[in-house]
Amino acid sequence: MSNLLNIILRTIIVLIVLFFIAKMVGKKQISQLNLFDYIVGITIGSIAADISLDLEKDLLAGLLSLSLYGFIAYLISYITMKSIKARRFFTGVPTVLVEKSKIIESGLKKTKIDINELLAEARIAGYFDLDEIDYAIMEINGNISFLPKEKNKPVTKKDMKLKSPDSGLTANVIIDSKYMENNMKAINKSKRWLDHELKVQGYNNYDNILLATVDNNYKVLVYKKDVNPDKNTVLE
After folding, report:
1. I need a labelling partner for 96 at 20 to 30 A (CA). Which of 30, 52, 58, 146 fits?
2. Which strand (E) or helix (H) includes residue 221?
3. Distances (CA, A) of 184 to 133, 169, 214
4. Strand ranges (DSSP E) for 89-162?
5. Could you tell me if 80 and 86 are in contact, meaning their C-beta atoms sit under 8 angstroms apart?
6. Angle (CA) 89 91 94, round 5°
7. Cβ(174)–Cβ(164) under 8 Å?
8. pLDDT tens digit string along 186-213?
9. In this structure, are residues 145 and 136 in contact, taking their beta carbons and an 8 Å threshold?
10. 104 and 93 Cβ atoms separated by less than 8 Å
11. pLDDT tens digits for 95-135?
12. pTM score > 0.85 for this model?
């Protein structure tokens, strides 16, 4: 029982330290990773699991190691922001795989992928014929970006000379029945205005509102709470 409580305590402490390390390193570390971020991430995860479960390991030494890895990741991130050479060394550069519909073999060898993997990625992106692709570039996070030929690009409203208003960003003004005062101030609207708009749509209070948003044209869109949550469709 003593060991179990010790593990719980160590795990909570490690989680708290990991939270502050993640806050220090920034959002990039928890999004799609480059090579250096990946190495740091798996190392920190391994250390965290080890010092949480192995009671013979020194907790303070483990926390110091975690903090050191987090600081190094932060330092490298800062350096790569300031230096292009450092950025290229630590995070790498994009690699061209297809250029003008021609497969670049040296690019495939450099990125360690074969032609079948390239074709599979192209199909996932919606291109079943490489002749439709002008460029394919492997980004530093391992994703492949495809640029279709001009004739294969989808038609846009600009191509059809159709005018449409700028939708802009939407403001979340009610979240889980709670009024978001700061978001309303950001769009220069009052609670009284919102209450009126909601009343027009049949809402006299916020109790049944899961989410309410206001777009760039001050249109209020309401998402109701599910009154029968057990009847939701489940995808298997």
Report:
1. 30
2. strand 220-224
3. 45, 13, 9
4. 95-99, 102-103, 133-138, 144-148
5. yes
6. 100
7. no
8. 899 999 999 999 999 999 999 989 899 9
9. yes
10. no
11. 999 988 888 889 989 888 888 899 999 999 998 888 888 99
12. no
- Could you give the CA distance from residue 164 to residue 47 in angstroms, rounded to a whole number? 53
- Distance between CA atoms of residues 56 and 42, nearest Å: 22
* Cβ-contact 29, 40 below 8 angstroms: yes
With contact defined as beta carbons under 8 Å apart, do 24 and 68 qualify?
no
pLDDT confidence tier of residue 173, bands split at 50, 70 and 90: very high
- Is the sign of the CA dihedral 101, 106, 107, 112 positive or negative? positive
Q: Which amino acid, 235?
A: L
CA dist 170 and 217 (Å) reads 9
Per-residue pLDDT of 19-58, as tens digits, reads: 777 776 655 545 456 667 777 778 888 888 888 877 777 8
